[in-house]
Amino acid sequence: MKLVLNGSPRELEVHPLKRLLDVLREDCGLPGTKEGCGEGECGACTVLVDGEPVVSCLVPCAQVEGCEVVTIEGLAGDHPLQRAIMREVGSQCGICTPGVILAAYPLVESPRRPTLQRVREALAGNLCRCTGYEAIHRAVLGAHAERHGTA
Amino acid sequence: MASVGTSVERKEGMDRATGAARYADDLRFPGMLVGRTIRSTIPRGRVTGVRLDFDPAGFTVVDHRDIPGENCIALIERDQPCLVESVIRHAAEPILLLAHEDRDRLCAATVHVEYEREEPVFDPARSEREFKHITIVKGDLDRGFARAEVVVEGTYSTGAQEHVYIEPNVVIAVPEPGGMAIHGSLQCPYYVLKALKVLLGSEANGVRVIQTETGGGFGGKEEYPSMIAAHACLLARKSGRPVKILYDRNEDMVATTKRHPAIVRHRTGLTREGKLTAMELDVLIDGGAYCTLSPVVLSRGVIHAAGPYSCANTRIEGRAVMTNTPPNGAFRGFGAPQTQFAMEVHMDRIAEHMGLDPFTLRLRNALKPGDTTATGQKLGSDVSAVAVLREAARRTGFRRKRAKLAGTHRGIGLALFYHGAGFTGGGEVMLASRAGLETTPDGVRILVANTEIGQGTRTMLAQIVADALGVPYEQVQLAQPDTSVVPDSGPTVASRTCMVVGGLLERCAQSMRARLGDASPAEHHARHGRLEVVEQYAPPPGRKWSDETYRGDAYATFAWGCDVAEVELDPVTLEARVHKLTAVQEFGRPIHPALARGQIEGGTAQGLGWALLEHVVMRDGVMANAQLTNYVIPTTLDTPPMDVVMLENPFAGGPFGAKGLGELPIDGPAPAVVNAIRHAGLDVRAIPATPEALALAPRLAPSADGAAS
Amino acid sequence: MRTVISGFSLRRPRTLDGALRILRDEPGTVPIAGCTDVYVTLEFGGTPGTRYMDLTPLSSLRRITTRENRLVIGALATYTDLQRSRLVRARLPMLVESARLVGGIQIQNRGTVGGNLANASPAGDTLPVFAVADAEVVLAGPSGERRVPFTAFYTGYRASVRREDELITAVEVPPVVGKQWFRKVGTRAAQAISKVVFAGVRGLETRLAIGSVAPTVLRLARTEAALDKGSLDDALAALAQEIAPIDDLRSTADYRRTVAANLVRQFWSETA
What pTM was estimated for this model as a whole? Predict the structure, then answer.
């Protein structure tokens, strides 16, 4: 199957029903996407498929044929969201962090300024056990402000 | 420039945000096999036959006969087998281990186990075996009740809680020349090492345990990893190849430890003005099938059970008992959330009964400097019970809102609580922790076995050393916790890492500073080679504790908290929604304010989940709702805005005035929320206070704060 | 993941006819789309099959349009599609609400209307909406297209009239006259399975439907009739007879009964 992974075209020979999560971690050498539950409940495995956050533990890889997939490794490494989440301590143990960043990414990239309620809703599918979410919200709002120059 | 007290950049840098952080399941070793555990499907009985029903090619199979030393996971007792020999005491007990290179072959393998069933015991009140009994006596209870003008009784209960660290348990055992390396998601590498030494007996040479990046612990990776490490180790030993055992979420929830369920009975005497004269309590905790840490959970639970209050006559009886369920174990708070839930709801019921407001009742009884606790510990200026209570009440307009919301669907409730830092009584002496500091070409390196599990260990300890040594924070690194490299500085539990281990490192730094003279560590290293300083724990002078009488100085110091919850009951769905949670906490002072705030916000959310959402459903002795779909923890939409206040009261016995903080925040939210629900008119005395439970709760008639009619 | 998939197969037909041919020639093939339940079912005891067929290439099934003033929602429309659709927002706001509450955004981006219907769970969040909207399920099969009134679509627990060689291609919804009302009571505020899920329309007639309190989604015909006669008390009595909630891992029969009644009351008072 062919897809565009983190901006580069890739061709993979994998079973079509293999979970996208496993393909990323095992066949593509990208272990940044994490498995927290295998049920689509925790959001730790969130990736972007054609710009939309999905839980990769529930995606048969054949379904991303021809799609653009972005994992945490596909972000520049110093995106305002990445910096904000570390600065605000919106990441403690870090295992949920890649999923949280990708779930929040479209919200931060969109020029429309999100309310705190919108941030909560955007992240309602990402479980964090360490932070109580407050610092994550601060980070996302701060990242949006920085990204769009409204800081 | 001082780093203590500022929110410096964490030692991990950006790795967590870029996907560069490597957790155990991200690691690969050449020739690695995957392991799988075959578990009991009955809660009590015997194994009468095991039959392998698969092509054995490529498989490694391990049973109890493959254990060279003692078949146990050594902890306080040695009662818990590593692998079942024949007796089964809980469902999901491990019987057999398989490993194979091919995950598909491994998962497809079928094993038939035959059993002879026996009648299991699930009700702790009917238990046939007691793991531990503790009695705490202060003053003269009979005289205390004789003086009482009001007596209030009540029974309170708390349910089990599953940790739900987002990274499930995982360990990789890797044979290496001369021994075996155990890489794992764990909190206490030396606990694992000790357990493996007993398991392997004379073959234990050359075993080292290394903590990998860990995706959450909360106590769930305090003692359980010894079991999974033992399994991986046995498979690796037999196959000669690295073996990874990774639990999926379902197995992790079914088979690993949970918070001890508890039932607490109170009988309390007071004067007409609301001053405590007598407190009698019974604490019963369900330990599950094996002892694990139940005696210590009970210990912390009973020591905190009488709450942060002054009472001259107190008697606390505590029992930890056995049932045929998977063993319960460490979970943040470790007995204190359970007993303080009971105490704080009981205090509100006393207030209701006497027509006093909850703030005033607590103010009249809160511990002050010079007072003694239930174990007879005399408290000094490191007490902030009144300060946190006053600040929380002031900040939330508590008394005004109590009056204003009475008779509505909304309620406001508070809880006053405390948490001892470090191991109880003589525990720290027994641990005899040692911490080290060495010079390197670039600065210094901290050598401790304490683990970073999200709470900021690396960062906080580096800040303490940097300032004590007088070097920039950037020049202080930490060695990865590897038992072949670092000394045993004790486990990462019990709110001890900052105060106890940080304190040891502060002494190391001071000692090193004296030896360095004018040279920087790097300069000294260049001139003289490596300089290492090791310090061992010494108890503060004058501390007295007796395990026999359970009297004396239980902890070096306590941290203090007061939470206020503002809640609305939905009349249609009976859901209790927390609109706001105010947490006022005193823990000496924060070393890293943002990390400290994170502990408070995170612990608070975990406490709220325990109070309202998290329900472990047991059927036939095993967790039946072992999926995140059915065991629900709070999402962003379930968690209220939190107002966090960190009061400072520097503690002379802690590094730069710091006490311990990791557990305090989880002691308060559940009783604060339940007290708010009570204010909104429902008689709740147990958690989880799910909507199903609230729909059945008797109504409380409201009145001018707050006597029930 | 424990389930071994190496022996499973996945077909990806390019046309609807191709998909129907596969169902006809290879009975037992399981159609999949958003897959928000497939892996979960595999892992937790269900054995839906070993041969799968991915419908997502059939992009024509994802359209949301109108046909003679009826709203036509393609079976592959996702919950996000529903929320973004001007047509759905204008005509069926209760469907938008159900889509918003179905789960976190990751699930909304993947789960489909067709999947919600075909999965046939009594807790399906869109099902009460389609039931009160008097929708029609459009099925394509070897003998062409047929339509089934939504209220006749389910025959029992996880059972529908869809034959093995048929595919749900769309749901058609006539104009809804009256106030639309929807409420889901889940296990928590977000990313939750419903304990009770309720939709109502108050127009000249009242229409009520409820999920998670019986083996299938229910239209509450007798409760509706009592409300139309003006008696809330009679309606609640009828409700108690029409629903059959059970205890399960997430909730209790008692709680569901209490909440169902409260929802009827809340609906009635808020749509007055």
Answer: 0.97
